[in-house]
Amino acid sequence: MLYWMSRGLAAVSLMLKQPLASFCDIETSHGDALVTKHGDYVTFLRLGGMRRMSTRADIERLANAMRIDISGTLENRGHAIVGWYASDPDLAPVEIERINMAACREIAKEIGLEVSDIFEERKKLWTGMMRWETAYFILWTRAATLTKEERKQMKEEQAALAKKCPNIDDAQKFHLRSEVMAARHKGFVSRVLASLKGLDVAAMELSPHDAVVVAREAMYRETVGSAWRPTFVGDPFCPRWPDEQDKRPIAELMMWPALRDLFFDSDAVAHDGQRVELGLFDYGCVDMTMGPEDPRPFVELSSRLGQDRIPWRASFLIEGGGNADMQLKRVGAKFLWMFPGNKDITRAFEALDREREGNNHIAVRLRASFATWAPFGEVGRLRLRLSTLKQRLEAWGNCRATTVIGDPVEGVMSSVPGLSLTSTAPPSVALVGDVLAMLPWGRTASPWEKGSVLFRQPNGAMWPYDPSGGSKRPQVLDTFVAPPRSGKSVLANTINLGLCLSSATLGAIGAKLPLIGKVDIGDSAEGFVLLVQEALGTKRRHEAIFTRMQFAPGFEFNVFDLQVGCEYPLPLEKAFLQNFLALVTLPPDQSTPFEGMNQMIGIVIDEAYRLCTDVPGASPKRYRRNVEPLVDAAIEAHGIVLHTEEPHWRDVVKALFQAKEYRLAEIAQRHAVPLLQDLIGAARTDQVKDMFSKLTIAMTAEQASDLFERYIYDIIRKFPTLNSPTKLDFGPARIIVMDLAEVAPTGSAAANRQTEMMYMLARHIIARNFFLRPDYLSLVPEEAQSYHQRRFQEIYESVKRLDYDEWHRTQGSPQVRAQAELDVREGPKHNVQLGFASQRLSDMGDAIVSQSTGRFVLRAGDEKEADEIIERFNLSEASADVVRHRLHGPGPAGAPFLAVLQADNAKYEQMLVNTLGPIELWALSTTPGDRALRNRLYDRIGFREALRRLAKVFPGGSAEREIEERKAKRLRRGELDARAEAGVVDELADELADARGIGAQIRYEEERSEFLAVAAQ
């Protein structure tokens, strides 16, 4: 008897909304939907956002299109849409760890990259500038949508299920399921999803388990990121043990427990009529009492509140049948039309009627509730946040809002998603198109949920970027466009560092640094290499190399080198040789090869390699001792017997290969392959003469073979390092940056031709192995196949990246561009990423721009350049405004840029900010003065200490202003400009190294820290 009395009192308390559990209507699940105690069906759709930035006009246009798609479902009562949004700067550390830091730390540990100081600095900086946000559509289907016959069928279904397991009391009432309701709800969900995706709004349906987790984390903020999961019918669970005195235990104990018993963690306590204590936080709520006069996109409200950096959430409840709900008020207003207020109401109803008749624009019932929170006990902070939320809301199209709500607990619960279809906000009637524009679907989204690079939007929202590409971006071809000092080199270095911390490091044989090569003019990537070297440690510094190319001993490189054990080049290697030789046999002021020259070059290449083999009529190169001491020692150690009279380097290669001395075999092979000078003999062979003896160059009246020989002699004379066996050896390096500043001059046709040659040569040195693939194994001699099989497979599966800086230097060189375009076409087949950076878009060339999948615009040089970028990339109006007015170069808050990406078979446009901390900024800086100061300190006090001191004294990541001020003083004293700058840099380096002058603050802070530590003890 007492049991049934307690159950009755509990039911009454639930009806009166006394316990917190009474606010939860969710009872169980059915398929992908939740089911309430009234038999309603509920589904959560996570809104990723739009792919492109949009203006207000764009949002209104899309909202109207959405209205046409789904207004039929809101014509009558039964369906409801809740647009729910939450933003919380305090959750930034948790979200940053989830989408970026956790994976980066794990990968850094796997590959042995010690960058913990950068991780800590990033998290500290980003936490203060970024915020977590999320948005959902919660779709409701109620029994009112069913016909009379369908309602009868639903009741029969429920009754049949209830008979199978009676007397389950508070257990989950699975008998509330209905196939009729499920089908009707599924159609509603599919219609809304199709509308969103048709408008390029990313949306994903959540499972019932994930949906309830979203609701619980919204209610109890302290549970975000926990492992809590709800239990539904069909899930494993532990039955409850009945009391020993209970001789007839109820079936409830053996069934799945009620969701409300699992969901609620603590009760709510109201204070002061407005503040609600719930869990570890105090909450306050705001209700919209009157809709906006000028309906505006939701992003205008969220961006302003994002800049205020307060946590808040919003719930917009839209229900169908808005006109029907207002019929009584309509009749009353017409009856009492003579009163001023009722005249306005009557005119409003007439406006709604005109929209319905003229545009089939229906009205809906709208209620909107908002909430904010603060840590428990911080009443002042909560009141300030509540006031800010109310003011921003009222400024959003001139709404009316209130914080005075009859039941503050119910007011706070009105903005918890999915628990029930209730709200304390007064209902209003609004056109569905206006309401849809106010919902939180218009924010922009990233195609990646996680990424090793984390950018931020100007309003503080996070934007993860995955530089590895993956399945969403199988072809990675990036272009960076900006005038000097706009941040493009730092952005490129950020992406390359992110690549080192991404899934690109994970291969079939374990974690390794990705293969990264960069052809640079200057040392913009030197800081990146030094950072990686320091992070790898002393024993692995050789895996990252920065070198300045020179025409000097030690920099010899033979373009005819082969894969070890091979006698002829692989297809792409031969294609490079043809392009390179076509370039060097051109007059400096021409860009088109002579007629027939390309054909002759191909034959000459084949002949040059044939003459170095053992075939009849050939002359393989003879082995000589003391040329390669390591090879000589290996021959003796392995007891290799060579031909006594005519030992050949080719025999040495084969013998060392059989002895598994692959590295030494590669060194020996450098002496077995042709050199530039060997092309002369190849061009004079009978085969070449027979084919090209009648080919005469009209411009010079020379035979083609004579002209070819003349140019080859000229190249040998000018560049003797290209006519020697290779000595420039990077060994097992995986990151190679080559600075061509000393060998790539400008100013004349001959200088430009040399620069073009150096670009092609550097590309070959760095990336000749990037394009290896298992298919080429059949082109390798049989005895070398077992060695190359695993090697080709590993390289083929690895992510490779090849960057070119100052790409405008290759203008007017079809051969260089042809090689790059070939790499672009072959890149996706070989998992090779490509990047091109230059100062103007026109520098890139149409072929590269048209195929690029990542376009990073950091600034336009002038209005004409801006118009060209806008037209070439077909930018939206919002993105065009960014290019014209919002890209001002790096500042204290980071370097803004426009990203235009092809990812996941869609186009994304977003203004982002590359935000780095002072340590990372100093490490990657490319400003000449900053770089000189940094490098001096590296030499004086070491890498990490130098960066620590620079970051402490110049937290903005640059000492440029200080250098300029001191330099100006020296110039006024009559010093020369170059000497003045060098003297200033030396002076600053001394002060920072000795902790005096401007560096004295380092000593002061260290002494202060020591004092505080002692005082604390």
What would your notes on this structure say?
- With 1017 residues, the chain is an alpha+beta fold.
- Strand 27 (895-903) and strand 28 (906-914) form a beta hairpin.
- Helix 19 (597-610) packs antiparallel against helix 24.
- The protein is elongated, with a radius of gyration of 36 Å.
- Helix content is 44%, strand content 16%.
Keywords:
single chain; 1017 residues; alpha+beta; 13-stranded antiparallel β-sheet; nine-stranded mixed β-sheet; 37 helices; 44% helix; disordered N terminus
Strand content: 15-25%
Kindly state the mean pLDDT as a whole number? Answer: 87
Radius of gyration over all CA atoms, rounded? 36 Å
- Multimeric organization: single chain
Low-confidence stretches: 1-17, 335-339
Q: What shape does the CA trace take?
A: elongated
Number of helical runs?
Answer: 37
Tell me the helix content.
40-55%
What structural category do the secondary elements indicate?
Answer: alpha+beta
Please give the number of β-strands.
28
Largest β-sheet summary: 13 strands, antiparallel
Distance between the termini: 64 Å
How would you sum up this structure in a few lines?
Helices cover 44% and strands 16% of the residues. The protein is α+β, with helices and mostly antiparallel strands and 1017 residues long.
Topology of this protein?
Blueprint lengths: L1 H14 L10 E5 L2 E4 L4 E10 L5 H15 L8 E10 L3 H20 L4 H12 L4 E10 L6 H17 L14 H20 L2 E5 L2 H12 L39 H5 L4 E4 L3 E4 L2 E10 L7 H11 L3 E8 L2 H4 L1 H9 L4 H20 L3 E13 L3 H16 L5 E3 L5 H6 L14 E4 H6 L15 E4 L5 E4 L11 E5 L6 H13 L5 E2 L2 E2 L3 E6 L5 H11 L7 E5 L22 H14 L12 H14 L18 H9 L11 H10 L3 H8 L8 H6 L2 H7 L3 E2 L4 E2 H15 L16 E5 L9 H19 L14 H16 L2 E5 L9 H17 L1 E7 L7 H6 L2 E4 L5 H11 L3 H9 L9 E9 L2 E9 L3 H7 L3 H14 L1 H11 L6 H13 L4 H18 L5 H17 L1
Parallel strand pairs: 16-25, 16-26, 19-23, 19-24, 20-23, 24-25
Antiparallel strand pairs: 1-2, 2-3, 3-5, 3-6, 4-5, 4-10, 7-8, 8-9, 9-11, 9-12, 10-11, 11-13, 14-15, 17-18, 21-22, 26-27, 27-28
